[in-house]
Amino acid sequence: MFLLLFNLALAPGLFLLIIFYFVDREREPMTLIFATFFVGMGASIPVVIMEVLAKSLFAPFAQTVSPQILQISYMFLVVAPVEEVLKFGAVMAVVFASREFNEWYDGILYAMVASLGFATLENIFYVVSLGVGVGMLRFVLSVPAHALFGGIMGFFLSGAKFSRRSFPWLIGALFFPISYPLFWISAILCGAPTDLSSSAAWLARPQCILWNISPVLNYIGYFITALLGGLFIGWIY
After folding, report:
1. Which of 32, 149, 150, 222 could potentially form a cystine with 112 if both were Cys, beta carbons 3.0 to 4.6 Å apart?
2. Cα–Cα distance, 225 to 219 (Å, whole number)
3. 131 — alpha (psi -120 to 50), left (phi > 0) or beta?
C-alpha cells in the first residue's frame, strides 16, 4: 500500500514536468532541470519548519479571534509568502544567471519545475499519510495549482531577465503568486470541513455555490491578472 501511495504522490509532478519540458522547442539541459526540481523540493523542508513556528505565534489569538480570520491571516501572512519566496529563491539560485536562460519560456519552465519539486515532496507527505482519496484530489487540484502559480512567477522572472528595468518584474514575480490564498478564502468563509467524508454535504450548502465555481474563476482570473500585470510593467518599461 505504501508503494502505491508513494507512486500516486510522485505521479502528478513528474507527469506535468514531462509535459512542460517537451513543450519547449529548445530543450533545456537535464542537469539544470533536475537541479531546479530538487532545489525546489528541498525548499519545502524549511517551509514546514517556518510554518510550524509561525502557528505558535498565532496560537495566543485563538481565544479572541475567530478561526476563519486566523486562518485567512495565516494564509496571507505566512503560508503564501514563505512558500513563494523560497520557490523564487530556488530559481534565482540555480538558473537565473545561467546562459541557458535565454528565452521567455525558460523563466516559465524553470519556475514551474521548482514549484513541481516543492509540490512533489509536499504531496508525498499528504498522500502517504492521508490516503488515495487525498492523492486523487491533489493530482487534479493542488499540484497543478503549484505549477500554475510557478508559471505566473516565471513569466515575470523572464521579464526581469530580459528587460533593462528588472526590479518591477521581480516584484511581480512575488506579488502575483503570493496572492493565491484568495483561492481558498471562499472555502474558509464557507466553513470547509476537515473530514473529507463530509465534503458532499458541505458543498451542497447554498452559501457554498460560489465555492463550487470559484476554482475555475480563480484560475482564469490569475492568468488574466498576470498577463495584464505583465503588459502594464512592459508598458512602463
Report:
1. 150
2. 10
3. left
Length of the chain equals 237
The C-alpha cell that represents 191 in the structure block: 466553513
How many other C-beta atoms are found inside a 10 Å radius of the C-beta of residue 203? 15
Task: Yes or no: say if 156 and 169 are a contact pair by the CB < 8 Å rule.
Answer: yes
43 vs 51: CA distance, rounded Å: 13
Whether 190 contacts 203, CB under 8 Å: no
pLDDT digit string, tens, across residues 5-38: 999 999 999 999 999 998 888 889 999 999 999 9
User: What digits encode the pLDDT tens for the residues 174-221?
Assistant: 988 887 655 555 555 555 444 444 444 444 444 444 444 444 445 555
